[in-house]
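User: I'm putting together notes for a lab meeting next week and I want to include a structural view of one of the chains we've been expressing. I don't have a solved structure, so I'd like a prediction I can at least talk through. The sequence is below, exactly as it appears in our construct file.
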Amino acid sequence: MKVGIIGGTGQMGAFFARVFTRAGHDVRVSGRTTPVTNKDLAAGSDLLIVSVPIHSTIQVIREIAPLLKEGQIVSDLTSLKSGPVSAMMESDADVIGMHPMFGPTADSLQGQTIVITPGRCKDEQVRMLSDLFSSQGARVTVTTPEHHDRMMAVIQGLTHFKALVMAETMRRLGITPEETELFMSPIYRIETSVAGRILAQDPMLYADILSQNPEVANVLDTCCEAAGNLKQVIESEDTDAFANLFLTDRRWFGEYCSRSLDMTDRLIAAMVKE
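Assistant: Thanks for the context. Below is the predicted structure for the 274-residue chain, given as structure tokens.
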């Protein structure tokens, strides 16, 4: 195929340029300083991928949508899917949303997850992309744009919110991570490392993930309610109520609890050996 990547000079765009080149496809990219324009790619690509910041994605899609024709495939790589897929559906092209569940610093697709959200397309087109990614070691999940966004509100929104609350709480208490290092358990080191990893990156990326997904607000409301309830139970010093809440959540997690214990034990063992 002739594959065009709008934003292909950025980190994630460049990563997928390598992925498609490795698979034997002819890849061209556009960026702010390239002689190749977005319109050039829209006119000459069998598969056109939009890889720009979340807040710019729909605007860029709508700029190139009138140029796309039947027989072409248009896709995107953003963390949200409902809005971008709806915008791509305004074109005459086949539509397949994609979300790589990893950052551009990954060495390869080996062991990584890519979510595919078909909009208007043929089954064989979805299989073609799935097989391409799977052949390079990725795990592919196919779902709807709406279900994707609901899951991302928890997987990304809740996780990022919790890590940022931890960092904000430590700042308000006047306690730095360095001060806690002599007291760190492996699990605490993992938690603070997640917060540090997020804070080391572009704040606008996380602002978009948390504010642009319409499903996040309900998740964060529920999180704050859960935190308030847990706080009340702890402050009441009612250990029976605490145990009841604890065991209720354990039952909800089910077998995942034992699998998580085994996984984190192995992770901790690896960390201690360093």
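A couple of points you could mention at the meeting. The chain is about 60% helix and 15% strand. The first helix runs from residue 11 to 22.

User: Perfect, that's what I needed.
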